[in-house]
């Protein structure tokens, strides 16, 4: 376990890639809202269905706090569900070649993903990255790693460990 932990820590993603993940994933959530508005407009224009237009009207008239709550909730659900169903990746993480894993090298559980993403609601969580690890990483015992480097080093360690083992023919 100690070796896996060191491989995980050694292959952590850079702050630049993590920032890119944040920007890309926020753009994706913005695009989801845009696509919902587009869908609402098209269903109204083509099918004369007013249901989605009425939702869009209500959303456009939200207060600043209501807008923040809705956007934060959608962002939370996007990150939680994407990371859970894609085993640690969001669209941003796919683009940057990064992934969330547990500090022991295993795939995180749903609870780990939940803790990781609910921790983002803590004020100043983003500033916690000026330390060693961000709070949402530390509290969930997860890390964001560079996938190629991590897999390469893990394979190299496995190859070294298998040297001298008797091959079974």
Overview of this protein structure:
With 169 residues, the chain is mainly alpha-helical. Helix content is 64%, strand content 6%. The protein contains eight helices and two strands; from the N terminus they run αααααβααβα. The chain has helices at 2-10, 15-47, 51-60, 64-85, 91-96, 110-118, 135-138, 147-162; strands at residues 98-102, 142-146. It has a two-stranded antiparallel sheet. Helix 2 (15-47) packs across helix 3 and helix 4 (64-85) packs antiparallel against helix 6. The longest helix has 33 residues, at 15-47. The protein starts with a helix and ends in a 7-residue tail after the last helix.
What distinguishing features does this structure have?
8 helices; 169 residues; 6% strand; two-stranded antiparallel sheet; single chain; mainly alpha; 2 strands
Average pLDDT level: 88
Biggest sheet architecture = 2 strands, antiparallel
Instruction: Tell me the overall shape.
Output: elongated
H-E string: HHHHHEHHEH
Structural class: mainly alpha
Number of strand elements: 2
